[in-house]
Structure formats: C-alpha cells, structure tokens
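Revision sheet: structure tokens.
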Amino acid sequence: MTSIKLRPYPWLANSFSLRQRFSVGGERTCSAARAVAGLLLSLLCACADAPRRPPGYVVVGLDAAPTSLDPRTASDASSALILGLVHRGLTGTGASGEPEPDLAASWESPDPTTYRFFLTPAVFQSGEPVTAADVVATYRSLALPALQARQDDALEVVGEVVAEDERTVRFTLRQPSAAFLHATRLAILPQGCAAQSDCRTGAGPFRLARIGLDSVELAAAPSAEPRPEVPGILFVVSPDSVSRALGLARGSIDLVQNAVEPDLLPWLREAGLEVVATPGSTFHYLGINLRRADLADDRVRRAIAHAIDRDAIIEYVLAGHARPANELFPPGHWAHADVRAHDYDPERARRLLAEARPGPIHVTLKTSTVELRRRVGEVIASMLAAVGIDAEIRPLEWATLYGDVRRGAFDVFALAWVGIEEPDHYHALLHSSMTPPRGSNRGQYAEARIDALTLAGRTVPGRGERAAIYREVAEIVQRDLPFVPLWWVDNVVVKNRDLLGFEPSPSGDLRSLARARWAVQRGPEAS
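Predicted:
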C-alpha cells in the first residue's frame, strides 16, 4: 500500500498560479509534452513486437482488468465494457436515455403494477432460442445466496415473474415503480446457466472465447443477427498510460477509450491516430464519510467544495476534456436540475473551516493508482491543504479501493458513476436505508426529506412530476453535500484510422464495436 503525504504546493494555491505553471504568454507550454514524446519515441524503438492478434480482430486497451465476467455480479467499468458486447437485456437505453426494445420487441402495462414483455426471435451463443423461461430463470437467480448478485435497487418491487407462453413474460410489481423499465436492462441468461453462480453465456453479438491473465478475447457469435463484421475483439490490460499509448502508436492496440493521459493526445495525433472527444455523462465526485464528526459538519464539506478549482483542473490537468458538474445528471438529461454550483472560493473555505473547527483537519483521500486519477488526486489534496485541510493521498489498486469504499473504510474517496440514466439512482445513493451492503449510501447520509422524495420519485408516473421531485433532491444535495460533485468527463477515444463504424456513446459503452469494420480487409498477413 502506497501512502504519499502532500504539502501545499504554492503553484496550486489558486487558479492564477496554476495557469502560470501550465501557460506561457497565454498558450499552454509544450515542454512537458515534448519530453514525454521523446521518451515515448525512445521506448517505441526499443519495444519488442507485441504478440500477434487473431487475424482481423480489434484490439482494445484497458487500464484495469475486469473483476467479474458474470453480468449479475460485475460492478466495475472494465467488466461493463466487455459484458455489454456479450449480453442483451429485455430493454436497452436509447440516445435520450429512455428504455428502448432489445430482446423484448415490445411491452405493455395494462395497469401500474403489471408489465408484459413480448420477446423478439433471438438465439443464445449456445444455439438455444431465448424464451420467456430464460427470462424468469434469470430474474429468479438474483435471489441465489451463493451468487451475491449486484441487484438493481428498482427490482426490489418485483413480486412475481411468470412465463405466460414461450414468447411472453409477465412481471407483477408489489407497488407502482417509475424506474422499473430501466432495471430491465439486466442481461438475460439461459435458464440452465442462470442456476449457476458464474454464467458467461449471453445473446449478444460476441461470445467469450478466452480469458487470460491480462486479456479477454471475444469472438463473433454465429448466433448474432446481424453478425459483426469483425471476427472478434481482444481486450488487453496495459499497466499504465504510456504502455497504452505505445501500443496505439505501434499498431498493437487499435482503440482506447478514456484511458490515455491528456498530455499524450497531441503526440498520438501526430503519430497518425484518430482522436475523437464527445460529451459524456460519467460523473466524477468525492465521497465523504459522514460518520466522522468533523466531516459530518456541513460547513467542512462546503469548505471542501469551495477549495477545489474545478475549472483549472479541467483545463490544465484534463486538457479541457470535461465539464464542471453541479449534480449527478448533465445538461440534456431530463432530470438535470441546473442547481447552483459551489464556486471556487478559497477564502470562504477558510472562513467555513474556522467556524466549524479551530484546529487542523486531517483527511486521507483514497483514489486509484491509474496515473491520471492519481495526478488529479494530488492536485485536489494540495488545494485542500491550501485552505487548511491536511490531505494525505493514498492511491490503491482498484479491487482494494472499491473494497474499502464498499465497507466504509475511508475519509474521502474519488470515484465516478458510469452510465447512470435513471434518477431513481438517487434512492440507492442517498436513502438512509441504503447503506452498504444493501445500497450505495457509503457515506451514511440521512435526511428525512431526501428519504421521502426518493421514495416518491419511484412511484410518480409522469416525467414532469418526477423532474420536479429530482430538482428538489439535487438542491438538497447541493445544500448538504453528502458528496462533492467534480465534473462530467468527455469520452475521449483514440483509435486506428482504418477502424470504421465505431461511434462513441455518451455512457461510454463500446456496443457500437458490433457495427465496426476495417477499411481494408485484414488477413493473417495484415494483423
């Protein structure tokens, strides 16, 4: 375990000095980038050839290994990226964030507690047809004690799942739920496989072909309709951003999303790679442990929010590839409330701390060992130190970090919510009954009005009424700050220019790789 004690850096004390460090005459200095580029070039010349990929495969670089390849227990971003290509649910998510047909061609709701889904003809990768019995078995498997499934909070209202015939499945809810349809994105598994604690067979366009120590190979599923144009995808885990950049530059990696240091992007463009940045919905935040007496004081949490210069971090550390966040959902989402942000104001932060506590405050900030996350953590820790919060950054491997967060072993942590579309997520995140292991209220926040609102938001059917409820939720969250919003990051894709048809998704998934193709057919001699 690595622990780094940081002292206040004068150049991070305010945004002006941060700009001075990174800019000369109004333009960002390139000296650091040139040094990195020189190092990359020297390493590139010294690198041995990478292992050969299967002919025609697309190679995707990941910054962390998947933790689970069963969609019911997977909870990390790498697992989600891979499994999104292997599985399908009754519904998917459309461009506007609304549920859309997937394995269910359509559905009806004759009353507020009954949903009937009509399945489209589809086949599992095992060759068996997808039936209503598979849907029933999948949803019932979530209760298996040995599985310890990561169940969607919105599925708790399901009272019964029944196969009415081979193509029709009926859900009966114990009470009306406005969020239920979003929960039906759950991957459907074959009924025999669903009874097992580790099921890896799906109905998606790719099947799991091989799992290595630092790689996962997917092959195009013969059952897919339409069948992918590429024969497969090879996910490789690279230890750091420089390794991934080298892989892109020498052609051993074809695509990396949100896993390359911003400083390396100009060099990669010069190396002939295509860089595509699109607005994303991934929400980065600081989680706070409210069980600590000093952090339970909302003045301390507001001081933390006012101490962080988000604009400067976005411009000079993230190279502009993010938008300052003031709430969970970004502009354009129907539940975006446009609440007022906590502006960067270090003087106000110092006053709030003086009011709350006469002595110094010490916190440990836990973050990932991924280079960019560690650098962001260092900057935030230094900004906190500049207003009087003694900050110790502790970078951890993903499994350790996530384990500590889930069991409440933290003061402050830096994480992100990926692919959140349904505002019912506020219930799992903030309701006082949703502390781990049941939910994601890891900071132990409790507020009666939030409890009432997040319950009401689950039952009110109209979007307008729900939007008003979640607007009030967002306002209370900004007042109480059970977590500190940071930014919504862009999806930054670096890819081989010969790979066509891939379209980045706002949620960051890679599903459009099922429609990707090579500009020139790739055989063994070209792989």
